[in-house]
Amino acid sequence: MQRIYLDNGATSYPKAPLVGDAVKHFIENVGSNVNRSGYALTQTAEEIVFATREEIGHLFNFAQSENVIFTLNVTYALNFLVQGILQPGDHCIVSSMEHNAVMRPLMQLRERGVEFSRVPCDKKGRLRPQDLYKYIRTNTKLVVMTHASNVCGTILPVEEVGKICADNKLIFVVDVAQTAGILPIDYKKIKAHALAFTGHKGLLGPQGVGGFLLEDSIASTMCTLISGGTGSLSEYEEQPPYLPDKFEAGTLNLPGIYGLHAALKYINKVGIDYIREKEMHLAKMLLAGLGNIRGVRVVGLMGIQGRTAVISVDFKGYDNADVAYRLDKYYGIKTRCGLHCAPSAHRTLGTFPQGTVRFSPSHFNTEKEIKITLSALHKALKDLGGTG
Ligand SMILES: Cc1ncc(COP(=O)(O)O)c(C=O)c1O
């Protein structure tokens, strides 16, 4: 059976060309660690790790490559930032569209005396930046926000929020899991203090590598979540205070970084504009087709302005899980059904607890695949007793 992969919001498939080759090359021909031994292969690996930090910096208009920290994924990155910045007695502000990668660390911190407030977004996932003012307190230290919803694709106004944070001396952390590699992201324009990214979604790299970049002023006052060997300052039992070593204890995922390096080179070559245009063209087709099917409620924005290509659908009168199951079993169409690790976003959108079926194309999908998906959806709904 054909495979039509529309689950890029979860993880991208296929990966960028040459990602697999780069991972294989590291495993079969390089194999050495970085920062630990002095032979030539170590230096080759060190060069690729450094070049990858530079590519990430270039992508986000961030000049300090040594302040690009690698972790396993954005969940780890957000945990480093949120748990490293907030101390008992501090207050944090988030939007009501956050992923559990933000909410769960905050719930954990609440046990330790950290408070947080949720700025409500509207039923389409939009945030009014000025609403932030209602939640700023004397002990507010941090604002954490996703750049775009992983449930319905709505883009949050991070530049306006960044300005409010700067005016009120608040630290601003942005989760770019759903936008890196897909939207142009300018660290300076956003006025963020840190960005957290993951390598396996829009960055088209392998799973197991992500990270964050941050300003010196934040890094120096932040404690690290994990400490241990770095291959540097080995005579001391304390963690090195400088970057990236302060936050990179233990051996890095070097095969993953080689893969991510290849992916970033690809993104650079084809350009974010091309990727965005192609994705939004497919999203437009999908949205138009979905609008013509009875029983389909697209959750969030119906047009392509202000959103990414992540599209969530609630099938009124059907069990969403049945629809997703049929699409996969009979037509090979891969979507993601449920709450997408973002119960707060679903509550905001009015789709809790039933969740939605999420279609998330990438620029590797084709018009033909979207047409097949829409026709399969008509058939699947008919088979489930609807009029299709
Ligand atoms: C907005 C957002 N934040 C965080 C995450 C967590 O990503 P990862 O599993 O790569 O840590 C995701 C992915 O589902 C996401 O969409």
The number of distinct β-strands equals 13
What is the CATH C level class of the largest domain, in words? Alpha Beta
Number of helices: 12
Instruction: Label the structural class.
Output: alpha/beta
Catalogue the ligands.
pyridoxal-5'-phosphate
Task: Report on this structure.
By secondary structure, the protein is of the alpha/beta class. It has two domains: 123 residues, Aspartate Aminotransferase, domain 1, CATH 3.90.1150.10; 252 residues, Aspartate Aminotransferase, domain 2 (3-Layer(aba) Sandwich), CATH 3.40.640.10. It is built from twelve helices and 13 strands. A seven-stranded mixed beta sheet has the order 2-8-7-6-5-3-4, with helices on both faces. A four-stranded antiparallel beta sheet has the order 9-10-13-12, with helices on one face. It has a two-stranded parallel ribbon with strand order 1-11. Strand 5, helix 5 and strand 6 form a beta-alpha-beta unit. Helix 1 runs antiparallel to helix 8, helix 2 crosses helix 8 and helix 9 packs parallel to helix 12. 47% of the residues are buried. Bound molecules: pyridoxal-5'-phosphate. The site of pyridoxal-5'-phosphate has 13 residues, from helix 3.
